[in-house]
Design goal:
By secondary structure, this protein is α+β, with helices and mostly antiparallel strands. The longest helix is centred in the first third of the chain and has 56 residues. The model has no long low-confidence stretch (mean pLDDT 82). 12% of the residues are buried. Strands 3-1-2-4 form a four-stranded mixed sheet. The chain has two domains: 57 residues; 42 residues, no CATH class. It contains three helices and four strands, in the order αββαβαβ. It is rod-shaped and about 85 Å long. 59% of the residues lie in helices and 12% in strands. The chain binds zinc ion (ZN). The site of zinc ion (ZN) has 7 residues, from helix 2. The site of zinc ion has 7 residues, from helix 2.
Length: 111
Amino acid sequence: MQVAARDHGSKNRSGIVGYELRVVSYLFKLKGLKMRKFKVLLLVVALSVFIVSQYALSTEFWGSVKSNIYHYPHCEWAQKINPQNLIKFSSPKEAKSKGYRACKVCGPPED
Ligand SMILES: [Zn+2]
């Protein structure tokens, strides 16, 4: 009886340990998944901040020597400028001082 009881107890204990191990491994998996999601999210946020900052910091404006309009480099009209006619300005002020005006399509800043 005593041996049987002890056996029963140890079985119970190992059962609890096994359950705990399963819970712990489940939690670890869950944590790992969350961390992975978090890392992906962090990467996406970092990437978008980088792209936005690239746009924000790109203070370059493009114009053509054959026109008097200056554009953001990504403007469809800026893209059509022949590289031979391309003139770059570091600021709208510079473009204006050379007699250029802001494009109405891409709307670069006036100053
Ligand atoms: Zn434009």
